[in-house]
From TrEMBL:
This is Uncharacterized protein. It comes from the Bacteria. The lineage of its organism: Bacteria, Bacillati, Actinomycetota, Actinomycetes, Kitasatosporales.
Length: 65
């Protein structure tokens, strides 16, 4: 079984933001990149799509070193 989800992708280098409809297996939900945040911080980010994108972009830079 699959769930239809909206996938959002942001490239900080090109400053391109795109979205697509994707199929996610119910038995394998995608990892939550905000899972490690305290609940209030997570809620604050999710209220603003812009803040969420900025947070994820910073994480991507950290991963690259
Ligand atoms: Zn790019």
């Amino acid at each position: 079984m699959y769930e239809r989800c909206i996938a959002l992708a942001w490239c900080a280098g090109c400053r391109v933001y795109s979205s697509a409809l994707v199929h996610v297996p119910r038995t394998r939900p995608p990892a939550d990149p905000l899972a490690a945040l305290p609940p209030e911080e997570r809620e604050r980010l999710l209220r603003s799509e812009r803040r969420t994108v900025e947070f994820l972009a910073r994480g991507a830079h950290r991963d690259r070193g």
